[in-house]
Amino acid sequence: MIEFHLDSRSGVAPYMQLIQQVRQAMRLGLLGEGDQLPTVKDVVAHLAINPNTVLKAYRELEHEGLVAPRPGVGTFVTRSLTDQSLAAHGPLRDELKSWLGRARKAGLDDESIQALFVSTFRTSIEETTR
């Protein structure tokens, strides 16, 4: 089961962070069809957030067709977002870990690494859509 985390410094609304984490877990194969999301009560207790925030995230995921509520039982994943073979993830993850190690040795802190990654990622997307 997925365990949610919130970053108050990210500038991203808490409900969107929950949505992004569910999508990411689905893309990585950590959540698959039939898996149950944590109950609203459990998420509220773990993150100390308003239940309406969790409900909003779950409703949005339901609207996207990614999850479905079962009254009295919970919210369940209805499909997969895994596009490619998960076998490709291992080598890519290893390369990324190596890159992160080199970035830290170069003196970059976590925020600088994240800024570099995000800006490079966005530039890459822009270049491929031209």
TrEMBL record:
GO MF entries: DNA binding; DNA-binding transcription factor activity
Q: What is the name listed in the Swiss-Prot or TrEMBL entry for this protein?
A: GntR family transcriptional regulator
Q: Which species? A: Rugosimonospora africana
By its UniProt entry, which Pfam families does this protein fall under?
GntR
- The HTH gntR-type domain, residue ranges: 12-80
Alphabetical list of InterPro entries matching this protein: Tscrpt_reg_HTH_GntR (IPR000524), WH-like_DNA-bd_sf (IPR036388), WH_DNA-bd_sf (IPR036390)
Q: Which domain of life is it from?
A: Bacteria
Annotated keywords: DNA-binding, Transcription, Transcription regulation
Q: Does the keyword Nucleotide-binding apply?
A: no
